[in-house]
Design goal:
mainly alpha, 2 domains
Length: 250
């Protein structure tokens, strides 16, 4: 028979093509076959997503340094991981926009006299730009990281981008998945943020400690420097936005 994937002939008794490894599929697509294929691709122990997700918890340096050193097929590449993160973020925004979580109080105050955010306008604006915002955070954090680890010549700026492409999107997949679940029960956005930020920073401290092989003292000093730089850039960005708004009012 002829392989439907690579057009190379092989014995009809084979279940897999000896040339490309493609599985022989002769039956029609059914609900059962779709569920089986989904389980094989995404839920099996050996699939790349599950393996990458586990290892980024267990040993993030193995995934990241492995990729930087040339291991490109053992785990999901960082750009695919970014797309998965953006997809889950989009699902969360869609659920918010459609009101699946109910009316969410973004003020963190249960007083009905305090006006809530306009959910329609808020989620619409984020939904329009969330992919760009998510992607833009990676080189921004990579820049901060390069400044913090400026003495480490073994990691260039591009490699810092790979580090955060994995770590940022990994913790994004985790926290947004939690928000999707908790959003049905917790109506205060401030409360959800309070629950997520310790996870976000805690994981990055853990990952960077292992990737750069830091001592506890080095981790504390590097973390303080990171927050100082983050605050500096935050003030600069706010100043630029304020100047632009001021000029637009003239």
């Amino acid at each position: 028979m002829i392989c439907k994937n690579c057009d190379v002939p092989f014995n009809e008794d084979f279940q897999f093509c000896p040339h490309c490894g493609g599985r022989v599929v002769n039956e029609r697509v059914t609900t059962k076959s779709l569920l089986i294929e989904f389980a094989e691709k995404f839920l099996s122990y050996d699939n790349k997503f599950a393996k990458t997700f586990r290892m980024l918890f267990k040993a993030p340096e193995t995934v990241i340094n492995g990729y930087l050193q040339g291991a490109r097929h053992k785990y999901i590449n960082p750009f695919t991981y970014l797309l998965i993160s953006i997809t889950i973020s989009g699902l969360n925004i869609y659920l918010m926009k459609k009101g699946f979580y109910g009316e969410i109080n973004f003020t963190g105050n249960s007083d009905n006299k305090i006006e809530n955010f306009d959910m329609q306008n808020f989620t619409s604006s984020i939904f329009d730009y969330h992919s760009f915002i998510t992607t833009a955070f990676i080189p921004f954090f990579a820049l901060l990281s390069k400044l913090v680890f400026w003495k480490r010549k073994d990691y260039n700026f591009a490699e810092h981008n790979i580090i955060y492409c994995y770590t940022y999107n990994h913790v994004s997949i985790l926290t947004i998945s939690l928000i999707i679940v908790l959003g049905f029960f917790v109506k205060s956005y401030m409360t959800l943020s309070a629950l997520m930020y310790p996870i976000i920073f805690g994981y990055h401290f853990y990952a960077l400690k292992r990737i750069f092989n830091l001592t506890i003292k080095q981790l504390i000093l590097k973390s303080l420097l990171f927050f100082v730089l983050l605050a500096f850039f935050y003030i600069v960005i706010l100043f630029i936005i304020g100047m632009l708004m001021f000029k637009s009012m003239l």
